[in-house]
Specification:
By secondary structure, the chain is mostly helical. The protein has seven helices and three strands. The protein is globular.
């Protein structure tokens, strides 16, 4: 099928990410971690697959991560059901760590930040990423565009 061919192509280019590899980063705080963090990791991997970029080739580079996000629905849900506050609750439900999860997971050393400007978060994150590239805060050169922009908009 066409989907099998595309999956095979992207696996050849990028490798594959598994629940186990994503789980390593979240195993201590999985129950209190906002699903947005896991989904962002999965979507970022898909972006690399689509671009035929091997994330390991960017390890240790000045790759920047700029995430636009707003809203902490999961934290509110946990509060509403009376979930106990645990050691990892703050990190697991903070939007501020979304970009840092990616930087840590991929070992990127460039700027890593979340932009929360409500409805314009995605646009402002993209603008900030472009400014970072222009000012040389992220790598851009003959080797590759060493920059990953992910954004999540409001519905």
């Amino acid at each position: 099928s066409k989907q099998d061919q595309e999956t095979s192509k992207s696996s050849r280019c990028c490798g594959s990410v598994t629940s186990a590899s994503l789980g390593d980063i979240l195993k201590n705080d999985a129950e209190v971690t906002d699903p947005q963090q896991r989904l962002l990791l999965e979507v970022s991997w898909s972006c690399f697959e689509d671009a035929c970029v091997v994330p390991a080739a960017l390890r240790g580079t000045d790759t920047g991560v700029f995430v636009g996000a707003s809203n902490s629905d999961y934290a509110h849900l946990l509060q509403d059901i009376g979930a106990e506050v645990e050691a990892h609750s703050a990190v697991g439900n903070s939007l501020a760590v979304l970009a840092n999860r990616l930087s840590y997971f991929y070992d990127f050393h460039g700027p890593s930040l979340l932009v929360d400007t409500a409805c314009s978060s995605s646009l402002v994150a993209l603008h900030t990423a472009m400014q970072s590239l222009r000012f040389g805060e992220c790598e851009l050169g003959n080797r590759r565009l060493a920059h990953q922009t992910l954004y999540r908009g409001h519905g």
